[in-house]
Inverse folding.
């Protein structure tokens, strides 16, 4: 080869290398990498903890813990669930709406998970994970559900991750949730303190409750009530209080999550000292696809139910049965029977 030919060959080789480097830089910029000789498109997500997480451009496999299963179902992404929790599989209403959930791996138990079984499911993302899962390289999306604003943010983030159709549904839900809160708040915002009803939220054993900065306090206050535990300075979730404190607070309304606990309270001589028991204003919180009163999308129904229970005179025109039917049709594509509706409102569906 002549000198001129060698020079031309070297120039072509350098140009090819430069072109390859430019292409690689471009692909990296738009989130395309190579695995097994095939292009794999990715994107970055900033979760609710401020952490940047790399995930596939199209998410097809999700591992989901706890209440977030309800959100994925509500947004239409339930077929993408490859790992769930035992509490979801034991929920009759969830199983009725989506029977296939019984066949999905269930490594999540409460707030933990069987890591070995979770890894086998090969999720594209993990909703409701922890630091241990992150340390193993799993793409954990941090979510927080402490108040209505965070529930809205979480739903929008989940929708964005799942895909365009789910993101559209998330926006629809957030508008619905916000409209319910605004409608209730407009009626209760001008209530003077002496017209606000004292409410105690009875969790485990009856004497565990939620205080300040909790979703519980949010819906109680929106509905025209006062969370007696929060008013006494108690903060956080699942805080134990004494019977003496309860007698001092003397709530007008008691709301609980366990039907069996209601019977126990009504028969206990200490609880009978409270105005709520004396006046038969002890209620079991509704439970559908998930418990309405805690960190799920059915919180949008909770604020309506709480308003009707806490301030019945203000919300006599609220047709809760109709609202529940419409919610299940819109977000689960499921037509509730009258018996199912009654079970949900009685708190017997879980």
């Amino acid at each position: 080869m002549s000198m001129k030919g060698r020079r031309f060959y070297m120039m072509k080789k350098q140009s090819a290398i430069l072109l390859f480097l430019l292409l690689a830089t471009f692909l990296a910029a738009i989130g395309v990498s190579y695995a097994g000789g095939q292009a794999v498109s990715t994107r970055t997500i900033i979760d609710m903890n401020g952490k940047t997480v790399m995930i596939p451009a199209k998410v097809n496999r999700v591992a989901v813990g706890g209440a977030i299963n309800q959100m994925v179902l509500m947004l239409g992404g339930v077929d993408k669930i490859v790992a769930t929790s035992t509490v979801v599989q034991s929920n009759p209403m969830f199983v009725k709406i989506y029977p296939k959930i019984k066949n999905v791996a269930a490594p999540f138990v409460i707030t933990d998970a069987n890591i070995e079984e979770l890894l086998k499911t090969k999720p594209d993302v993990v909703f409701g994970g922890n630091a241990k899962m992150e340390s193993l390289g799993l793409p954990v999306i941090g979510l927080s559900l402490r108040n209505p604003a965070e529930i809205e943010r979480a739903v929008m983030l989940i929708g964005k991750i799942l895909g365009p159709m789910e993101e559209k549904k998330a926006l629809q839900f957030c508008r619905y949730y916000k409209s319910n809160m605004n409608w209730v708040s407009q009626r209760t915002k001008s209530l003077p303190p002496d017209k606000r009803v004292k409410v105690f939220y009875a969790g485990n054993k009856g004497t565990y409750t939620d205080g300040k900065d909790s979703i519980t306090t949010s819906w109680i206050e929106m509905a025209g009530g006062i969370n007696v535990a929060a008013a006494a300075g108690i903060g956080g979730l699942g805080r134990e209080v004494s019977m003496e404190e309860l007698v001092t607070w003397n709530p007008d309304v008691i709301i609980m999550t366990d039907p069996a606990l209601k019977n126990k309270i009504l028969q206990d001589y200490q609880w009978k000292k409270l105005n709520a028991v004396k006046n038969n204003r002890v209620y079991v919180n509704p439970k559908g696809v998930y418990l309405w009163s805690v960190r799920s999308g059915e919180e949008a129904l909770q604020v309506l139910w709480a308003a009707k229970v806490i301030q019945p005179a203000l919300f006599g025109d609220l047709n809760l049965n109709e609202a529940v039917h419409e919610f299940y049709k819109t977000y689960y594509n499921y037509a509730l029977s009258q018996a199912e509706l009654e079970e949900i409102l009685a708190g017997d569906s879980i």
About this structure: Residues 3-30 form the longest helix (28 residues). Confidence is low (pLDDT under 50) at residues 24-30, 32-37. The two ends are 82 Å apart (CA to CA).
